[in-house]
Structure formats: C-alpha cells, structure tokens
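Course assignment 3, question 2. Fill in each field.
Student: A.L.
Task: Predict the tertiary structure for the chain below.
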Amino acid sequence: MKKSLILAAVAAAIATPALAAPHEGRAFIHDYDTNKDGKVTRAEFDAVRAQRFKATDANHDGTVSEDEYISEYQARLEKQLAASTDTEEQKTEERQRQMRQAHVRFGVLDKDKDGKMTQAEYDASGARAFAEQDDDKDGIVTQADATATAAKQLAAREARAQQQQ
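Answer field:
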C-alpha cells in the first residue's frame, strides 16, 4: 500500500507541469522556446537566461541577492498561479511549496555561499539544466527529449522510493 501511494504521488508530480521552475519538460519548452517552433535551441535558452538574470538583478550591481532572486521568482509564480484553474487552496499549497523550494534553490546556486549569485554561478546552473533536458545531446530540446528526461527522472525517483522501503 505504501509503495502504491508513493508511486502515485511521484506520477502525479511528473504529470503536473512545474510552476515557475522551467527545468521540467513542458514548462522548459514553454519558457525558452522564443520562436514557438516546439523546440529550444541552446541559443534561445541562453538568450532567455541572460535576459532573466539581468531582470532579476534589480539593483544592477552584477549579482543577484536572495531577495532579488525570490522576488523575481515569486512574480513569475504568481502569474502562473493566476492563470491556473486550480482551487485557491491548491494555489496556496503550491505557492508555499514553490517558495520554500526557491530559497533552497538559491542556496544551491550560490556556490561560494557569499549571499550573491554571480552570472557565472547562474550560467553553470543553466548549462546543467539544458544538458539534463537535451536527452539525445544534439543541442536542441524537443518534446521527445522532455518526455525521455521525465521518464528517466520518474524511474530514478521510483528507485529511490524503493530503496527507502
């Protein structure tokens, strides 16, 4: 029974598009496919990432503080939640979960733990995210790549859940 519940929860998490965290499948393609051809080239990805870093650096000092990072993320999340058909209770739960994760993500991205994210730290994270989504390693993320990546992530989660039992 416990295994079934874990697997159901994992499957539901995979099936739901990631809100404001564009490193999963459909959200990744939606957020980075600037010419709307159904795929993301590395050039498209890098251009959006550069634009996002610049917009996030609200005080224009060349780095992103945790407050700047959280503020920019929360603005994107609120737009997505406003467009969502979820209930207000579901939106509240999602908002809380996503904002907790945003603080964790900043801590991971700030590699030298100086309270600021540099462009290099941000770019390194982006390179990892793109490489993870580009399943066939051809420099273009397609829906087939996103589907294959999601399947691999699900299998890894299931394996971890199995080990924890």
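Instructor remarks: Confidence is low (pLDDT under 50) at residues 1-22. The chain is about 70% helix and 5% strand.
Grade: pending
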